[in-house]
Amino acid sequence: MTTSNSKFELRGINHLALVCSDMKRTIDFYSGTLGMPLVKTVELPGGLGQHFFFDCGGGNTLAFFWLEDAPDAAPGVAAPKGRPDEGELASAVGSMNHVAFAVPPELFGEYRARLQADGVEVSRVLNHDDSPSGVAKEVHDGTFVRSFYFQDPDGVLLEFACWTREFTPEDVVHEPKTAADRRTTGAS
């Protein structure tokens, strides 16, 4: 997948910063279970908390804040309540819905089995396509990515995904929705 940016020379994601409730447990999961090296730790000034960075490959990092005064998690608002294969996808505008890590297609099944062996509950494999349901039971010419989902100890939705084909101009065909198209819920 090669496209070019005529405005900025962007080189991927430097880091995505999330918030955890227990930095030790977060290290155990991301470095232990997922094998991501912890590469930088920061104590925030004034006893505010901590900011730790994990190498997630390709020069990119995943960072976590541990903040002494962080509000409790809000599943269904700040993040999905569960996994997409369970019918859970909604999260609030401005929230972080999930993090998808690119994995080699040839190791996709092995990685899923490894997580299961480590006691991580994983979704079924989803072969994402352009069908009305958005997924197919089997990989076919219209499948563009294969993935499965799981959650970290704080409920952050994670995904291991691998592209199955190159994108073409024909892959950009939908009219964008606007704020007027939303069905809002909750108080204004």
UniProtKB/TrEMBL annotation:
InterPro entries linked to this entry: Glyas_Bleomycin-R_OHBP_Dase (IPR029068), Glyas_Fos-R_dOase_dom (IPR004360), GlyoxalaseI/FosfomycinResist (IPR050383), VOC_core (IPR037523)
CDD domains with a match to the protein in the record: VOC
Recorded superkingdom: Bacteria
Pfam families xrefs: Glyoxalase
Keywords of this entry: Hydrolase
Top EC class for this record: hydrolase
Domain VOC: 12-163
Cell membrane among keywords: no
EC numbers for this chain: 3.7.1.2
GO MF term set: fumarylacetoacetase activity
Annotated protein name in UniProt: Fumarylacetoacetase
